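User: For a benchmark we're assembling, each entry needs the component sequences followed by a predicted structure for the full assembly. Here are entry 17's components. Please fill in the structure.
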Amino acid sequence: NAGVTQTPKFRVLKTGQSMTLLCAQDMNHEYMYWYRQDPGMGLRLIHYSVGEGTTAKGEVPDGYNVSRLKKQNFLLGLESAAPSQTSVYFCASSTVRNSPLHFGNGTRLTVT
Amino acid sequence: KNEVEQSPQNLTAQEGEFITINCSYSVGISALHWLQQHPGGGIVSLFMLSSGKKKHGRLIATINIQEKHSSLHITASHPRDSAVYICATLHGGSQGNLIFGKGTKLSVKP
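Assistant: Structure for entry 17:
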C-alpha cells in the first residue's frame, strides 16, 4: 500500500520550460490537493479536486493548471516556469472534506 | 480571513521535558489539524479535532473552540520528536482547503 506517491522528487527547470508533476494515491480518496511550501510561509493551496473530473482554484493558482481525469491521479502542470515557482510542492489526499490528510513526500522544484 | 498563528516559532528542549506548542486562529472553524514535518521533509497527520482532547501515545492535542485556541503537548520528549509541527484549520464553509500556520520547529537535545 503506497499511499500518496509524487513524481519526480527533484527537478531543475529553466525559465519558460514546462513540466508536469504527478500525484497518485491508492486509497480511493475523493479529495486531492496540491500545495506549495516556501521558507517562512505556511503551506499554501494551489488547486484542489473534490472528485474525478473536478478541479478548483486555491489560494495561489496563477501559473499552474491541474487535471483529474482518473480518481487516483492529480496532475499539476507548469506551462511556462518562472523563478517565483521555485518551491517544494506537496500533494495530499483525503477521503472526504473533513478527514485527515495523507501527504506525498514532496517535489523540490528549482527554476533558474 | 482566518489567520493561524503558532507559538513559539522555535523551541529547544532537553530530552524528557514536557513540551507545549500553541495555535490560535481568528474565525470559527469546523476542524483543526496537527501535522508533523520530519527533517527529511515528509508530512504526516497527527490529529484532527473539532472539540475536546485527543491522545496518541505521548502526544496530546486539545482545542478550546470558545477561545479559538489549540495546544499540542508532548510528554517525555525524545530526540526523535525533533520536527516541525504545523497547525491547520478548516473553515465551515470551505470545500476542504486548510489554512496553515507557519509551523513550530522543535529540537529535542539528548
